[in-house]
Amino acid sequence: MAMRAFGVMVLVLYLGVVSEGAGRNLPARPPVVNIGTIFAFNSVIGRVAKVAINAAVDDVNADPTILHDTKLVVKMQDTNFSGFIGIIEGLQFMETDAVAIIGPQTSMIAHVISHVANELQVPLLSFSATDPTLSSLQFPFFVRTAQNDLFQMAAISEMVSYYGWRDVIAIFIDNDHGRNGVSALGDKLSERRCRISFKGPLVPRFTKNDVTDLLIKVAQEESRIIVLHMEPDFALSVFSVAHYLGMMGNGYVWIATSWLSAILDSLSPLDPDITASIQGALTLRMHTPDSKKKSALISRWGKLTSKNGAGTFRLNTYGLYAYDTVWILAHAIDSFFNQGGVISFSNDSRLHNAEGTLNLEAMSIFNEGNLFLSDIKKVNLMGVTGPIQFDADGDLIRPAYDILNVIGTGVREIGYWSNYSGLSTVPPETLYEKPPNRSSVNQQLHNVIWPGDSITKPRGWVFPNNGRQLRIAVPDRVSYREFVSRVKSTDSVKGYCIDVFAAAVNLLPYAVPYKLIPFGNGVENPSYTELVNMVAAGAYDGAVGDIAIVTNRTRVVDFTQPYIESGLVVVARVKRMNSSTWAFLRPFTLKLWCVTGIFFLLVGAVVWILEHRMNDEFRGPPKKQLVTIIWFSFSTLFFAHKENTVSTLGRFVLIIWLFVVLIIQSSYTASLTSILTVQQLSSPIKGIDSLISSHEPIGYQVGSFAENYLSEELNIPTSRLKRLGSPEDYARALELGPDNGGVAAVVDELPYVELFLSTQCKFAIRGQEFTKSGWGFVFPRDSPLSVDLSTAILALSENGDLQRIHDKWLTRTGCSSQTDELESDQLHLKSFVGLFLICGIACFIALLIYFFMMVHQFSRHYSEQPDSSTSRSVRFQTFLSFVDEKEEDSKSKSKRRQTESMERSMNKQNGGACG
Description:
disordered N terminus; eight-stranded mixed β-sheet; ion transport; elongated; 31 helices; five-stranded parallel β-sheet; 33 strands; transmembrane; alpha/beta
């Protein structure tokens, strides 16, 4: 029985194992998986990649936990720096059973081969084709196993913004890698209001003469920030020519993309002449965090290069990414087999139908290519470059770069950039543990030693050294020539605006060659909007004059700091107001007169109530008491009341009222004095609101932005607007008035109006300035000169030169100051509400206290009466009589009642005793 039970158990276990294997139904793994590689063996990247890929293949095949009994076999093809050969070699790999291709090295080959890879479903894994346009959407079978250049360009744009530069020059190889990288740089710079001001392409096989011709053009540009986006094998010659031309000295900034760091990491130390030509340059390097895996690979790199007979060179970041690319493939292949994937290929019938002698029919489709591609993009492992994982766009997660400064024979790390937190001096892996912080305060880099061994940050631009003067347009005004005017029979100009500009330019730390060019026909003031648009279009390099800073203009050009305040005001004719018979009533409004009179009577009545029971001066016949109230009330206006107050509450109310009277009397006296002694001016136009509602003609200066503002912003019909060309036209139109073909008012900018009113005393500004702006100098968008001149204008304001220039041109004494002729408004009730409120509250409190006192005294008085069971009406009449009664009489009656009450009680006691 025991043997039979044991046999049953063995059978059950066997069937379980068989059923488990049948359930999974996994095919056997092949002994070999073929992979192809395409790169230039003798290139800076290719030399390192060849050794790294071979080392990674050996490591994978030596690890039994990854592919088990399957071995990777890598076949390498050398493009020998030829795009055509690289394309042919890629097509040849498609004729084999390679499940993937590592490479190609260049973006140009990748663009072509990716189309074939899409059709044949063979993944391309490139560790060096960083062109941003090789997107996963267009080329789903292209997998970039290094960082996308889009992030490198984002890092450069943040560096440019961090140092406060605006324009950069881009020098690049004119191929897919160069053009598309620079295009991405332009997009990233525009996000930060920076731009590429000059693009310098070089043919892929450029010569020294090509570089020289290009750099001579670059030297004639204003920008001194040069971004060099090249391929590492031939790019150092650009620095050599730049050094020879003196373009590696003070003032220049050279930012090289990651190609330079690849050279420095692999081939350092370089030739002394080359090293001297790159001093002070900045470069980026794909960031790879320190780890044991990375250290182990670096420590055995010397043995690996000796084993491969590749010569002496060091490991760079491209080698690290090439090493990890093999491991990405190994993990993807393992996952592919674990899911039951089978490596099989089938012929494409469309290729058999293609005519020609090419062996196209030999190409085959990887049947499980989509599954394998999915396994590649799902890889999640820790490599020598750090965590390896792809995001939704097919890019590696956590893109980051080291920022390096070339110093001596090596480089110095001045900081890092990551897509997570921007620029920092802390390694990105440390910042990943904290919340993201992209604030400007948090963006930091260490100090840089710039070209020319300078530690001062370069300004980033200079005037071109080709001798061209800046063409500065100046309005050729025919009115208000004090601001800017053309000297007769010459092209020279003068005026307040010109002097301010010249003084500001003299404060700049560099020379500014410029020529002032009059703009206008000399018959009427030119259109300033047209002038601004011509500067934006590049017809002029700038504009100097009385140009207002308004919103529409700031959208197309840059303005300097305002050098004079401006804004639109209303000017109207004013009439002199003569004194009249009833001028003494004008200080107060009708409402204030009425409320003041009411309070006089109210306070008199309150004092009468409080004094009536104890003060004989407030007693007597009703007619006399009414006269007393009126007399006492109004006599307090002159502090001439003869009635004395004896009650505490009465004195309290009177003190507060006399204070109110003092304030009212003083205000009335001051206002009446002003009316009778100061000449008053009046006008039906009180400001812009009354002008809009009047529906009368409005004048404006020819060329001013006032026309557009009145019609577009305030919606005033253009039929109401009248063009006026000079101060004389202003005066004539205002004199005529709206009924005689003139205007009701003129709307113009404050500086013009102040100059106009200095000699025209019949007119005045009505209301307040209803726009706030200023005048500034105009330059094209992103012009660095506008920033430097703004600083100079502030310096002129601080040292007093700006005011001295103003006094020289704009101070006039022809008309006395009109500040004394402004129409003084009447005093309104709202100015005295607080006083009346205090007085009213005091009266109320005094009456309330007095009422409770009377009720209390009456209660005592009523309780002493022998018959207290009377009706309420009788009691109320009794209370009124009590209040009206003099206080002394009430006290004597109370004493009399108390005496009588005592006598009655004694009589009762005596009578009882006799009985």
